[in-house]
Amino acid sequence: MTAAIEARDAALSFGETPALRGANLSVATGEIVAVMGPSGSGKSTLLHCLAGILVPDSGEIRFAGRRIDTLGERERSLLRRDTFGFVFQFGQLVPELTAAENVALPLLLGGVKRAAALAQARPWFDRLGLTGLEGRRSGELSGGQAQRVALARGLVARPQVLFADEPTGALDTLTGEQVMDLLVTAAREQGTTVVLVTHEARVAAYADRQVVVRDGRVNALVAA
Ligand SMILES: Nc1ncnc2c1ncn2[C@@H]1O[C@H](COP(=O)(O)OP(=O)(O)OP(=O)(O)O)[C@@H](O)[C@H]1O
């Protein structure tokens, strides 16, 4: 079966620093994979390569069987906008926008009219336990609330792949588990493939499969 997203022998250096040294990872459609590993091992670099944010120096990145590392910057940017969703550690909400506008943002960028985009954003507030917070700005939300808004924004356009880089990294354990519960439930409902970078075993346990990046290479998780 064709993988949803795949790295084949991907290598990337930042100057003299090798971040990836022949990384292989194949994620099936609808699969939720947690990428673990020590600090500086290459997890975020791998995620950024898979998501078409970075281009490896060598090797291949494929989405639905098609190479994306050979695409130009504009094509990769459109692919990211139209096909992928993103959630980062600190939410990175746009502070000037309301929570509802933040959630609607990927739709607005994709050309959906404002009223329609906001209408599509609205059900996410009930779904993620954020009812009544639609008009708040990020400064008026708790860390957990802001991260749930970021999660809604990552999923609102029904991306085929959701890339999540330490989505619970800034949250306490309980709040982080609530966010993971919501992420996994929503991704499964939509059939969204998820690549999740985390250093927390408790968070990785929500995934279907865990892999470990060490020195820029991907290994299957082997029980200690
Ligand atoms: N933009 C950059 N410029 C220079 N070096 C970088 C850059 N991004 C990452 N690196 C280096 O590449 C290596 C891999 O970094 P990466 O961020 O992928 O690791 P990570 O496993 O995600 O780490 P962490 O868990 O600490 O976030 C590290 O040695 C890092 O210092």
From TrEMBL:
Domain ABC transporter: 5-224
CDD domains xref list: ABC_MJ0796_LolCDE_FtsE (cd03255)
Protein name: ABC transporter ATP-binding protein
SUPFAM superfamilies in the record: P-loop containing nucleoside triphosphate hydrolases (SSF52540)
Database matches in PROSITE patterns: ABC_TRANSPORTER_1, ABC_TRANSPORTER_2
UniProt xrefs under PANTHER family: ABC TRANSPORTER RELATED, IMPORT ATP-BINDING PROTEIN
InterPro entries: AAA+_ATPase (IPR003593), ABC_transporter-like_ATP-bd (IPR003439), ABC_transporter-like_CS (IPR017871), ABC_transpr_LolD-like (IPR015854), MacB-like_ATP-bd (IPR017911), P-loop_NTPase (IPR027417)
Alphabetically ordered keywords of this record: ATP-binding, Nucleotide-binding, Transport
Organism expressing this protein natively: Micromonospora zhanjiangensis
Transmembrane segments: none
Gene3D superfamilies: P-loop containing nucleotide triphosphate hydrolases (3.40.50.300)
Single GO MF descriptor: ATP binding
Keyword Isomerase recorded: no
Matches recorded under Pfam families: ABC_tran
The keyword ATP-binding is annotated on this UniProt entry: yes
